[in-house]
Amino acid sequence: MGNEWDAIVVGAGPNGLTAAAVLARAGRSVLVVESADTIGGGTRTDEAFGTGIRRDVCAAVHPTGFSSPAFAELGVSERVEWCVPDVSFAHAFSAADGLGVYRDPAALEGELGGDAAAWRRTVGWDVEVAHDVLGMPGLPRRPLSMAGFGPLALAPLDAFTRSAFRDERVRTTFAAVAAHAGRPTRSAASTAPGLLLGLLAAPGWPVAAGGSQSIADALAAIVRENGGAIETGSYITDFDELPAARQYFFDVSPRALTAIMGDRLPSRYRRRLDGFTYGGGVCKVDFLLREPIPWTGRGAAALGATATFHIARDRAQIRATEDAVAAGRLPERPWVLGGEPTRVDRSRAPAGTHLAWAYCHVPAGCEADVSDLIVAEIERCAPGFSDLIAERTVMTAAAHARYNPNCVGGDINCGAASLRQLLARPVPSLRPHETPVPGVYLCSSAAAPGGGVHGMSGYRAAKTALERADARRR
Ligand SMILES: Cc1cc2nc3c(=O)[nH]c(=O)nc-3n(C[C@H](O)[C@H](O)[C@H](O)COP(=O)(O)OP(=O)(O)OC[C@H]3O[C@@H](n4cnc5c(N)ncnc54)[C@H](O)[C@@H]3O)c2cc1C
After folding, report:
1. Whose CA is nearest to atom 48 of ligand 1?
2. Where does the UniProt annotation place the signal sequence (predicted)?
């Protein structure tokens, strides 16, 4: 039987669509097959609060997308209107106190006070370092910087914050950024996500105008303009369901890949994928508000000028949350990660309405609705918040897993950001996207470089395949 397609991509998340866009632009005939009725995976935007009100179901803020080498090469950034706030993210400690991480170096220095130089030295790396991190395990373009960045990134978060900064407020602000990845703060390499996201505060943490869906739509347009096709509503459970093709790219979890490929994968590789670990889940609340969140106190200006906020009284609250989740317990008073997209993107909701979202980490597979705990934390720092809620929707960790099979147990990054899986994702290899089956690639965030809407896993899987084909032709 002849091949119907050069490449089939299973999964239309940002990584699958990026792989498809790279392949289509290289002249390959590409079919993308997606299980959901709409494309985008973690970048979907819906109208849960009514027509014309654009809510991001999952990913909302895009530090890695804005600085993604893959999106730059594909011209995604020219098709997406980025709304870049002056304050990349802000931290609320209480109703009296907060701290903003401004893009402007002088404004940032003013916020950080005596820790400004330490922040510059440890977090203020050039954006090229982020490109090198997103390109791991490839050769770094900035080896000297990476030699400085690497050892800091490998440190446990508790030890790093204690030794790097003197002010407990700065320590807590950094700890919250690093804790996006949901790792216990004493674990090796729990600093790494903070350094990557922290250095990306300088270029910016934007939202996409109209919602994150516009990123997926931009990628899909590139696929279609280059002759590719996208089919939705097809959940693939077995390799035999797929049309014949030269190459296959799976934007799926390692668990799904082993189920789909079955005995076609060598048993040694399957055992390795079986050892791949997933992180905890999140419980997310979306709010339709009558007014923006009424931040007060010292951080109010910064919190009112950003699309992303973190809430934790201190590092102990972050540590207790992540320890509880790692032990399979619900945190009693979780630290909270959230955002107000309508602060910077007024196109999403009619005048007089505002959007906010917030989530906290919970154990994998957890069915519990902890939205009251999240509301209580926001209320603690912004008194009167509860009275402004017109509507709210809740997605538990278990609901996230049902919504998107890549969110195994509600893990938003499709794989824990453990030391092992930072260095070898999904398995130790210089070409981590390649499977032992010729022409079969894993291109989801379960493969290097990991979670986030940057398309780099799809980009690198596609580039590896194109390089292989070139090498065969020579
Ligand atoms: C609640 C939440 C908040 C987040 N916030 C942010 C954020 O603010 N910023 C950020 O950068 N990242 C964020 N993320 C993470 C980000 O969304 C993911 O890292 C990113 O979407 C991963 O892209 P992907 O293409 O690998 O997988 P996904 O986006 O998960 O897409 C995978 C796609 O494959 C499809 N699929 C899976 N299995 C099959 C199958 N067997 N057959 C057919 N189709 C299949 C799925 O339906 C899905 O559409 C968040 C994620 C969640 C869940």
Report:
1. 41
2. none
Choose which CATH entry (3.30.1180, 3.90.660, 3.30.70, 3.10.20) describes domain 82-207+280-403: 3.90.660
If phi over 0 gives left and psi between -120 and 50 gives alpha, with beta otherwise, what is residue 382? beta
Spatial contact of 343 and 87, defined as CB atoms under 8 Å apart: no
Closest atom, ligand 1, to C-alpha of 359: 1
Ligand 1 centroid distance, CA of 407 (Å): 7
**Other residues' Cβ atoms within 10 Å of the Cβ of residue 373:** 19
Distance (Å) from CA 41 to ligand 1 centroid: 4
What pLDDT sits at residue 2?
61
List pLDDT tens digits, range 214-235. Answer: 999 999 999 999 999 999 999 9
**CA 295, CA 330: separation in Å to the nearest integer?**
27
For a mutational test of ligand 1's pocket, the pick from 55, 57, 205, 453, i.e. the residue with the most ligand atoms closer than 8 A to its C-beta, is 453
Give Cα 307 distance to the centre of its chain.
15
Q: Which fold does the domain 5-45+211-277+414-473 belong to in CATH?
A: FAD/NAD(P)-binding domain (3.50.50)
